[in-house]
Amino acid sequence: MSAPLYQLKAEFFKTLGHPVRIRVLELLSEREHGVAEMLRDTGVEPAYLSQQLAVLRRANLVAARREGTAVYYVLTTPQVAELLRTARTILSGVLAGQAELLADLRAAPPARRTRDAARVAPDGHRAAPDVPRVAREAAPEGERAVLP
Description:
This protein has helices at residues 5-16, 19-30, 35-42, 46-58, 79-107, 133-138; strands spanning 33-34, 62-67, 70-75, 119-120, 126-127. By secondary structure, the protein is an alpha+beta fold. The strands form two sheets. Strands 1-3-2 form a three-stranded antiparallel β-sheet. It has a two-stranded antiparallel sheet with strand order 4-5. The longest helix has 29 residues, at 79-107. It starts with a helix and ends in a 10-residue tail after the last helix. 7% of the residues are buried.
Protein backbone atom coordinates (compact mmCIF):
# COMPACT_ATOMS: atom_id res chain seq x y z
CA MET A 1 0.00 0.00 0.00
CA SER A 2 1.40 3.41 -0.93
CA ALA A 3 1.75 6.30 1.49
CA PRO A 4 -1.07 8.87 1.57
CA LEU A 5 -0.43 12.03 -0.42
CA TYR A 6 -0.37 14.21 2.70
CA GLN A 7 2.43 12.06 4.12
CA LEU A 8 4.44 12.38 0.90
CA LYS A 9 3.91 16.14 0.98
CA ALA A 10 5.13 16.26 4.57
CA GLU A 11 8.30 14.39 3.59
CA PHE A 12 8.77 16.76 0.66
CA PHE A 13 8.53 19.80 2.93
CA LYS A 14 10.90 18.20 5.43
CA THR A 15 13.42 17.96 2.62
CA LEU A 16 12.97 21.67 2.00
CA GLY A 17 13.15 22.44 5.71
CA HIS A 18 16.84 23.31 5.90
CA PRO A 19 18.37 26.76 5.30
CA VAL A 20 21.35 25.51 3.27
CA ARG A 21 19.12 23.41 1.02
CA ILE A 22 16.81 26.38 0.48
CA ARG A 23 19.81 28.58 -0.36
CA VAL A 24 21.10 26.01 -2.85
CA LEU A 25 17.68 25.79 -4.50
CA GLU A 26 17.49 29.59 -4.68
CA LEU A 27 20.88 29.70 -6.39
CA LEU A 28 19.86 26.98 -8.82
CA SER A 29 16.60 28.83 -9.52
CA GLU A 30 18.72 31.48 -11.20
CA ARG A 31 20.87 29.11 -13.30
CA GLU A 32 23.15 26.10 -13.19
CA HIS A 33 25.89 26.40 -10.55
CA GLY A 34 29.14 24.62 -9.96
CA VAL A 35 29.95 23.28 -6.51
CA ALA A 36 32.79 25.81 -6.12
CA GLU A 37 30.32 28.68 -6.73
CA MET A 38 27.83 27.24 -4.26
CA LEU A 39 30.55 26.86 -1.63
CA ARG A 40 31.37 30.54 -2.02
CA ASP A 41 27.73 31.64 -2.02
CA THR A 42 26.57 29.47 0.90
CA GLY A 43 29.65 29.87 3.10
CA VAL A 44 29.52 26.27 4.37
CA GLU A 45 32.19 23.59 4.47
CA PRO A 46 32.57 21.33 1.42
CA ALA A 47 31.53 18.15 3.26
CA TYR A 48 28.42 19.88 4.63
CA LEU A 49 27.39 21.18 1.21
CA SER A 50 27.95 17.72 -0.22
CA GLN A 51 25.58 16.24 2.39
CA GLN A 52 22.87 18.78 1.59
CA LEU A 53 23.26 18.25 -2.17
CA ALA A 54 22.93 14.49 -1.62
CA VAL A 55 19.61 15.04 0.19
CA LEU A 56 18.36 17.18 -2.71
CA ARG A 57 19.53 14.57 -5.26
CA ARG A 58 17.76 11.75 -3.39
CA ALA A 59 14.57 13.83 -3.42
CA ASN A 60 15.06 14.30 -7.18
CA LEU A 61 15.03 18.09 -6.83
CA VAL A 62 18.48 18.60 -8.36
CA ALA A 63 20.61 16.79 -10.91
CA ALA A 64 24.39 16.79 -11.22
CA ARG A 65 26.69 16.64 -14.23
CA ARG A 66 30.44 16.29 -14.23
CA GLU A 67 32.72 18.29 -16.50
CA GLY A 68 36.30 17.22 -15.90
CA THR A 69 36.84 17.61 -12.18
CA ALA A 70 34.05 20.16 -11.77
CA VAL A 71 30.50 19.18 -10.79
CA TYR A 72 27.55 21.32 -11.82
CA TYR A 73 24.01 21.22 -10.46
CA VAL A 74 20.68 22.20 -11.97
CA LEU A 75 17.05 22.02 -10.82
CA THR A 76 15.19 18.99 -12.16
CA THR A 77 12.02 21.02 -12.67
CA PRO A 78 11.24 24.76 -12.90
CA GLN A 79 8.32 24.24 -10.47
CA VAL A 80 10.86 24.23 -7.62
CA ALA A 81 11.77 27.83 -8.47
CA GLU A 82 8.07 28.63 -8.70
CA LEU A 83 7.51 27.11 -5.25
CA LEU A 84 10.28 29.26 -3.78
CA ARG A 85 8.76 32.39 -5.37
CA THR A 86 5.36 31.45 -3.94
CA ALA A 87 6.89 30.95 -0.49
CA ARG A 88 8.50 34.39 -0.76
CA THR A 89 5.14 35.95 -1.65
CA ILE A 90 3.43 34.25 1.29
CA LEU A 91 6.18 35.33 3.70
CA SER A 92 6.03 38.90 2.39
CA GLY A 93 2.31 39.00 3.17
CA VAL A 94 2.82 37.55 6.64
CA LEU A 95 5.61 39.99 7.44
CA ALA A 96 3.59 42.92 6.07
CA GLY A 97 0.75 41.96 8.41
CA GLN A 98 3.17 41.78 11.33
CA ALA A 99 4.65 45.15 10.38
CA GLU A 100 1.15 46.67 10.41
CA LEU A 101 0.49 45.18 13.84
CA LEU A 102 3.81 46.52 15.13
CA ALA A 103 3.00 49.98 13.74
CA ASP A 104 -0.41 49.87 15.43
CA LEU A 105 1.18 48.89 18.74
CA ARG A 106 3.73 51.67 18.51
CA ALA A 107 1.05 54.23 17.61
CA ALA A 108 -1.30 53.26 20.44
CA PRO A 109 -0.98 55.21 23.69
CA PRO A 110 0.63 53.23 26.52
CA ALA A 111 -1.83 51.44 28.79
CA ARG A 112 -2.76 53.36 31.93
CA ARG A 113 -1.74 51.85 35.21
CA THR A 114 -4.50 51.03 37.61
CA ARG A 115 -4.46 52.23 41.18
CA ASP A 116 -3.80 48.71 42.37
CA ALA A 117 -0.87 48.11 40.03
CA ALA A 118 2.32 47.07 41.72
CA ARG A 119 4.22 50.05 43.04
CA VAL A 120 7.58 50.23 44.66
CA ALA A 121 7.83 51.83 48.08
CA PRO A 122 10.77 54.11 48.96
CA ASP A 123 12.46 51.17 50.74
CA GLY A 124 12.45 49.18 47.46
CA HIS A 125 9.71 46.73 48.44
CA ARG A 126 6.40 46.36 46.68
CA ALA A 127 3.86 48.69 48.21
CA ALA A 128 0.50 47.24 49.19
CA PRO A 129 -2.38 48.20 46.92
CA ASP A 130 -4.74 50.88 48.14
CA VAL A 131 -7.72 49.53 50.04
CA PRO A 132 -10.87 51.22 48.77
CA ARG A 133 -12.18 53.82 51.20
CA VAL A 134 -15.58 52.10 51.47
CA ALA A 135 -13.92 48.88 52.65
CA ARG A 136 -11.80 50.76 55.22
CA GLU A 137 -14.81 52.58 56.60
CA ALA A 138 -17.00 49.46 56.69
CA ALA A 139 -14.53 47.38 58.74
CA PRO A 140 -15.02 47.52 62.50
CA GLU A 141 -12.31 49.24 64.51
CA GLY A 142 -9.20 47.08 64.80
CA GLU A 143 -10.27 44.55 62.16
CA ARG A 144 -9.00 44.19 58.63
CA ALA A 145 -11.34 44.74 55.72
CA VAL A 146 -11.80 41.64 53.56
CA LEU A 147 -12.00 42.55 49.92
CA PRO A 148 -13.68 40.47 47.22
